[in-house]
Amino acid sequence: MKTIAVLPAGSVSDEAVKRLFAGEPMNWKHHRLIADVFMSTVNGVSDYSVVPIENTIEGSVNLHVDWLVHEVDLPIQAEWVYPSIQNLIGRGSEAAGEEGEIDFSKIKKVISHPVAIAQCLQFLRSELPHAEIETAGSTSEGVKIVKENPGQGWAAIGTMTAAGNNGLDVLSQGITDHDNNYTRFLLVGSEPFTARQSDKQKTSILITLPEDYPGALHQVLAAFAWRKINLSKIESRPTKKKLGNYYFYIDIDMALDSVLLPSALEEIEALGCQVRILGSYPSFTYEQLL
């Protein structure tokens, strides 16, 4: 039985990975912080770590990208997407109006993960402009804090699963600003993922240019372009070595063992660039996991 490190029970990460491994017996190791999730697998306590890496509304989760790049050396073994449906969670009795309706003016503080808060800004600005906003390590941690502090008029943003696990009420359902709010997750670890099969394969790489000179990035992209290799994402991030020095994180819609990709990477290395392979792995849409 495989052991999976993931953010706390009831978080979107927890729901998402259980969808990926649906029907498979697994041992779950829940951690409060993403650093602990990563280190669980680094230290051999778990076989895989689950990493939320990108969101429809907020884009890349930079902290998690930096951990993947700078702090650990764990290959990506799979990616999948899962809807981030956030809800306002608290005690109905504390937020009840005179006629039993939810009175948002009685909520004094809202607690959640920064990404979840950003996903619900329009709701917070329109319904809870008076409320203090406090961040937590995960959405489920925010819900737990509300559970442990009754009578304060506090609420959290999180999943319906987290509300049920903590005996709290859903004060307002589906409060995200956009209906198409999905999060992309990575499964990282040393063993290939075999629980499911996908027709779509991706490869993620890091490219560091030898120096900053005109046309350098163009030369790199040309190696993919003339071979008609599609790049689904390209993002620059600081190398943390020198101000203005960046690496490029690139997702490629092709397996590493395809005919064209290895020669493209060889051409890029011949330009003097450093190329690091982060993983070549199956990619799953949400529909594939239903």
TrEMBL record:
Residues 205-282 form the ACT domain. The keyword Lyase applies. It catalyses: prephenate + H(+) = 3-phenylpyruvate + CO2 + H2O. Pathway: Amino-acid biosynthesis; L-phenylalanine biosynthesis; phenylpyruvate from prephenate: step 1/1. Keywords: Amino-acid biosynthesis, Aromatic amino acid biosynthesis, Lyase, Phenylalanine biosynthesis. Residues 2-190 form the Prephenate dehydratase domain. Pfam families: ACT, PDT. Its EC number is 4.2.1.51. This is Prephenate dehydratase. It comes from Paenibacillus glycanilyticus.
